[in-house]
Amino acid sequence: MAGLEDENGTTAQGVPLDDLQSDNPRGSVDDDQEQRSAHDLEPVFDVPVRVQAVLGRANLEVSQLLKLAPGAVLELDRKIGEAIDIYVNNRLVARGEVVLVEDHLGVTMTEIIKTERT
């Protein structure tokens, strides 16, 4: 951590280096606090949310839509291998990749999208 400490042995934020290097630094959350926090969220565990994994989009006229039949190919606005968008309650929260899990398709999240709340 050379270069981060001052002559008093503290970081630019005023945290003593000994605290950063200890097993339980000051300001970190211990196991009891983590469990308490998870327990505090228990009332919302059963709240349903809508999760969508969007492979791509296409704009069609109604006449084109009516011509679709089994086996028809619909061109999407994404390229092969491009990340898919993951929405929770219509809010973009992540990007990911399609994976095969046994006989089912799944999604691996590769990027979490952080948005500013207003």
UniProtKB/TrEMBL annotation:
Pfam families linked:
FliMN_C
Show the InterPro entries listed in the entry.
FliN, FliN-like_C, FliN/MopA/SpaO, FliN_T3SS_HrcQb, SpoA-like_sf
Which residue ranges does the record assign to the Flagellar motor switch protein FliN-like C-terminal domain? Answer: 44-113
Print the keywords alphabetically: Bacterial flagellum, Cell membrane, Cell projection, Chemotaxis, Cilium, Flagellar rotation, Flagellum, Membrane
UniProt-annotated location(s): Cell membrane; Bacterial flagellum basal body
Primary localization: membrane
Specify where the region named Disordered lies, as residue ranges.
Answer: 1-42
Q: Which domain of life is it from?
A: Bacteria
**What membrane topology does the UniProt entry give?**
Peripheral membrane protein
Write down any Gene Ontology CC term. bacterial-type flagellum basal body
Q: Identify the SUPFAM superfamilies for this entry.
A: Surface presentation of antigens (SPOA)
Please give the Gene Ontology molecular function terms for this protein.
cytoskeletal motor activity
- Enumerate the Gene Ontology biological process terms: bacterial-type flagellum-dependent cell motility; chemotaxis
- Tell me the NCBIfam families matching this sequence: fliN
Protein's job: FliN is one of three proteins (FliG, FliN, FliM) that form the rotor-mounted switch complex (C ring), located at the base of the basal body. This complex interacts with the CheY and CheZ chemotaxis proteins, in addition to contacting components of the motor that determine the direction of flagellar rotation.
By sequence similarity, the record places it as follows: Belongs to the FliN/MopA/SpaO family.
Task: Give the protein's recorded name.
Answer: Flagellar motor switch protein FliN
What species is given as this protein's source?
A: Iodidimonas gelatinilytica
